[in-house]
Amino acid sequence: MIRVIVSDLDGTLLGTDHRVAGETLAAVAAATRGGIRFMIATSRNYPGLPEELKNSGLIRDYILNGGAQIREGDGKIVERFPLCREVCREVYRAVKGRDVSFLISSDDRDDTVLTENALEEILEKENVYKIYLWSREPSGLHTIREVLRHNHGITVTSSYINNLEITDRKAKKGPVLENYLVRLGYKMEEVMVIGDSMNDYSMLSMDFGITVAMGNAVPEVKRIAKYITKTNDEFGVAYAVRTVMERQNKEIRAAERRGEK
């Protein structure tokens, strides 16, 4: 029996217009009325979440910055895994002089960093949870990935072919999600996860009860997921949620009939 549903945002719960469709919100609302805990696991930080989600009252928890931060539905921080300052400096040095945009996600904002002094000012005042690198030339990012390969204290992944996302090695969606849910008293088989990109791989490759790749997911994610739903513009999350709810309702009715006998 699924008791928790965890969804990625961009390319998954959100359409290509980066909004939550009314049909999707209705499916999530139906699931929560049925007693399911609905969670978001995203690369975004808390201020970057769609307001219609934060104001919906439907989301119980958020796994943010690709696993670097956990917050409750009201925004209260439960746990965090910031990058150490020297790692931030190392990544900046690897990027310096290249045609690569360097953006960091800190406690309450995202900042594009243009100079070393600007980076030091941020590091002095705030925790940095994630570094985003963007380039028009993917081969340049491959070189940077190779430069950073020796650093076992970080995780390097990507959502798109032209970006890299760098977090502390402990900040992976899958393991962070598992540890958090176990502490709350849930079992792996009671969890369904849904995603589309390589930063969802750690969730979808784990032995959760149901793992679902979006119809628009990258091939690597589709290969390791147990199921594939419709695309994000075809309300794939809503379809997957309704399918699970219908199946569980049938099982409950069947159990009730057996009990009556």
Main sheet: which strands, in order across? 5-4-3-2-1-11-12-13
Backbone CA Rg = 19 Å
Mean pLDDT: 93
Biggest pleated-sheet summary: 8 strands, mixed
Specify the structural class: alpha/beta
Shape: elongated
Tell me the fraction of residues in β-strands, as a range. 15-25%
Q: Tell me the number of strands.
A: 13
Provide the succession of SSEs.
Answer: EHHEHEEEHEEHEHEEHEHEHEH
* Number of contiguous helices: 10
Distance between the termini: 22 Å
The low-confidence parts are none
Give a concise summary.
The chain is α/β, with parallel strands linked by helices.
Question: How would you describe this structure to a colleague?
Answer:
Helix content is about 40%, strand content about 20%. It contains ten helices and 13 strands. The strands form two sheets. The protein has an eight-stranded mixed β-sheet, with helices on both faces. A five-stranded antiparallel β-sheet has the order 7-6-8-10-9, with helices on one face. Strand 4 and strand 5 (about 75-80) form a beta hairpin. Helix 2 runs parallel beside helix 10. The radius of gyration is 19 Å and the shape is elongated.
